[in-house]
Task: inverse folding
């Protein structure tokens, strides 16, 4: 089944700055760029390899702000990508 789309929601390409703030395990603010958004989530590129699945962050970008959970993080040679599920 590799190569088949498994996403439940349509994604729209997005641009602009996004900022996420962690409190646990220690305070950390990460700035990055939006890659795409959906009704209940977003993906961003950034340079923080310490961001882990399951961590809850406060986020803000031009069209939305709130709380989200990191669902996955992919470390690439060009940087880091993380997908988030908006939780509140």
Result:
């Amino acid at each position: 089944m590799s190569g088949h789309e498994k996403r439940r929601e349509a994604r729209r390409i997005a641009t602009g700055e996004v900022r996420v703030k962690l409190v646990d395990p220690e305070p950390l603010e990460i700035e990055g760029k939006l890659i795409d958004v959906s009704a209940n989530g977003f993906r961003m590129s950034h340079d923080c390899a310490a961001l882990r699945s399951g961590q809850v962050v406060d986020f803000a970008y031009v069209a939305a702000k709130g709380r989200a959970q990191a669902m996955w993080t992919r470390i690439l040679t060009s940087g880091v990508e993380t997908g988030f599920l908006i939780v509140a």
About this structure: Residues 4 and 67 are 29 Å apart (CA to CA).
